[in-house]
Each structure stands twice: as structure tokens, then as C-alpha cells.
Amino acid sequence: MKRAVSGVQPTNNLHLGNYLGAIKNWVELQDQYDSFYCIVDLHAITIKQDPKVLRQNVLNVAKTYLALGIDPNKSTIFVQSQVPQHAELAWVLNTIAKLGELERMTQFKDKASQHKENINMGLFDYPVLMSADILLYDPEIVPVGEDQKQHVELTRDLAERFNSAYSKTFLVPEPLIKKEGARIMGLDDPSKKMSKSATSANNYIALLDSPEVAAKKISKAVTDSGSTIESGKDKPALTNLLTIYSLLSGKTIKEIEKEYTGKGYADFKKGLTATVTEFLSDFQAKFNALDDNEVKSILEEGNKKARAIAEKKMVDVKTKMGLI
Ligand code: TYM
């Protein structure tokens, strides 16, 4: 079976962008791919974290995966820091990664400008650790949102560079980025992506927002000029809302446009609110029903499975480099 690998950072609240750009696709892939879905806590610490909150967030992300439909009988759910080979391979890859290529990473530039007081080496090296997360498992595909494309391209370059220096060791993976939902935009500003670290909470709908809060955010969401419910390049706000509506309801954008012919924004937002709140209520009921101890034992199992593969790969890497 071909393999898929991806991950989410356990920082703040996960939002609809994380679901529609990534996790929703993971759920669909788990029947065709041997899937490894990681909670990347070593990535999270590149921004200062409160240890207690981080520990809780790791558990919450695991619960989120499960409540969104990741099935632990089909997919491996695990925690990055519990598989020491991630950090070990990152060090090895550091020796072939170039300063210049890391300086070009747009996420680094964005985060460095947001956290001027803490531009640490980890933040700079973040994409190399992500490459290690991927290459340890030889996946064919890496299902992510658009913002991670550049990191997967770096991963491919590092795999090819290592293979040509030390003989074929890593599979060169492809990013899997769906056209719809790859870049869900902020509700308060459709020119910027929906982001956990946005300054205004009106930017995103968190998966744990109460239906009332979500409804308020949708009512405040910016819209475009004009009054018809249509997607288009000149209507970025409406196109974004239509994309969310479509992906959550299973209706195509065309079908939704037809449904709202002759109607205005108020009706459209009412329909969108009903769709979003139904999704959130269902998700939150599943999330709240999960038992902490059961989730922890699912993670233990996953860590073990991931470790077995990562250990083997690291022996291969070290042998080829003369490290044993
Ligand atoms: P993170 O935690 O920022 O985001 C998790 C996933 O959600 C996607 N995403 C979005 N998709 C559409 N629209 C949005 N507005 C939006 N915001 C976020 C991201 O593209 C991502 O797929 N570096 C990664 C985590 C990571 C990883 C990995 C991913 C670490 N190692 C190995 C894949 C493979 C990150 O920070 O994602």
C-alpha cells in the first residue's frame, strides 16, 4: 500500500482552514493509503509555549483528528516528539540544506516578522524538521494546504540531494493539494489566509467555536460589492464563503449559486450559518465524547508503529553516511 504522511501543529485552536485544506482530505485518503498523521509538537515549540497548555493541545489535536473521522484502525496517529528519529534526521538533513534556500521560505519570513522578539534557530530550521517528518516514512504523497507547498518542494530537493550523494535512500514525495479548499481565506480579510495566529478572532472559525460564536463571525464576515451570490476572481470574499459552504455541505458551488439566484447576502449567510453550525455541533459532540485515556493509548500505539519505521530508516541513513 502506498503511504501518506502529514501533520498539524498543536498550537491554538484548529480552524476550518485546517480541516478543509488538510484533514478532510486525510479522511478520504485513509482507505487507499497507509496513512501517518502526526501531531508536530517539536514544530510548535519554535514559538514560545506554556508546557501545560502544549500538553493539553497535543491531546486536543489527537481528539480533533479522531472526531473529524481519522480512524485509528486505518491510520497511524502519533506525536512527533515521541519518535526521536525526527530530530535526528533533521540534524542530518541540516548538513545538506543550504542557508539560501531556507532564507527563501515565505512561512519563515512571515513568522519572523510576527515574532521579532524570538527569531530562534528552530524557527529558521522548521522546514528541515518537516522534511525529516516526511522522509522517514517514504510516503508517495503529502496531503497539505497550499501554504505548505514550498516546504514539500524543499523536502523533494533534500531527498534528491541525499539520494545522489549517498545512493537511493528516500522516496521523493509529491504534495497533494486539492484545488478546492487549499487556501481558505480569513473571514475578516479575504486577501489573507485563515490563520490560527490571526490578530482578530473574527478571521477564523475555530472547530471548537460554539455555534453561536460561529454564527456571529459569519454575520460579520466581509462580502464583496454587488448583490448576487456568485463566485469569481473579482469576488474573493464571496468565493471563499461559497467554497466553505460547498465543502461542508457536499453541494457544488454551481448548485449553491443556483439555490441563491434572486436572493441576497442575508439569505446566503443564513444558509451558510446553518451548514457550519450543523458541522460544528456534530464535530463537537464527537470530540467531547472521547475519553482522555483511550486517546492516550491510541497515541501510544501510534508512536510505537511510527518508531518501528523511523528506527529502520535512520539505521539505513547512518550506515550510508558512515555513522555506525
Ligand atoms: P499547520 O499546523 O499550520 O497547518 C496544518 C494543515 O492545515 C493547512 N492549512 C490550511 N489549508 C487551507 N487554508 C488555510 N487557511 C489553512 N491554514 C492551514 C496547512 O497547509 C496544513 O496542511 N508545517 C506544517 C505542519 C507539518 C507537516 C509536517 C505537514 C509539520 N511536519 C509533515 C505535512 C508533513 C504546519 O505548520 O501546518
Question: What keywords describe this structure?
Answer:
324 residues, mainly alpha, Rossmann fold, Tyrosyl-Transfer RNA Synthetase, 2 domains, three-stranded parallel sheet, two-stranded parallel sheet, 5 strands, 55% helix, binds tryptophanyl-5'AMP
- List the domain count as a whole number: 2
- The CATH topology annotation of the largest domain reads as Rossmann fold
State the major sheet.
3 strands, parallel
Helix content: 55-70%
Q: Indicate the low-confidence ranges by residue numbers.
A: none
The CATH top-level class label of the largest domain = Alpha Beta
Structural class by helix and strand composition: mainly alpha
CATH superfamily of the largest domain: HUPs
Rg (CA only):
20 Å
Summarize model confidence as the mean pLDDT: 96
Strand order of the largest sheet: 1-2-3
Shape: globular
Can you give a write-up of this model?
- This protein folds into two domains: 3-177 and 292-321, 3-Layer(aba) Sandwich (Rossmann fold); 201-287, Tyrosyl-Transfer RNA Synthetase.
- It is 55% helix and 7% strand.
- It has helices at 16-29, 41-44, 51-68, 85-94, 99-103, 106-114, 121-135, 149-166, 211-220, 236-249, 253-259, 265-289, 292-321; strands spanning 3-8, 34-39, 75-79, 141-143, 174-176.
- It has a three-stranded parallel β-sheet. Strands 4-5 form a two-stranded parallel sheet.
- α3 (51-68) packs across α12 (265-289), α4 runs parallel beside α13 (292-321) and α10 packs across α12.
- The longest helix is centred in the last third of the chain and has 30 residues, at 292-321.
- The model has no long low-confidence stretch (mean pLDDT 96).
- Tryptophanyl-5'AMP is lined by residues 5-9, 17-18, 21-22, 40, 43, 130, 133-134, 142, 144-145, 147-148, 151, 182-184, 193-194.
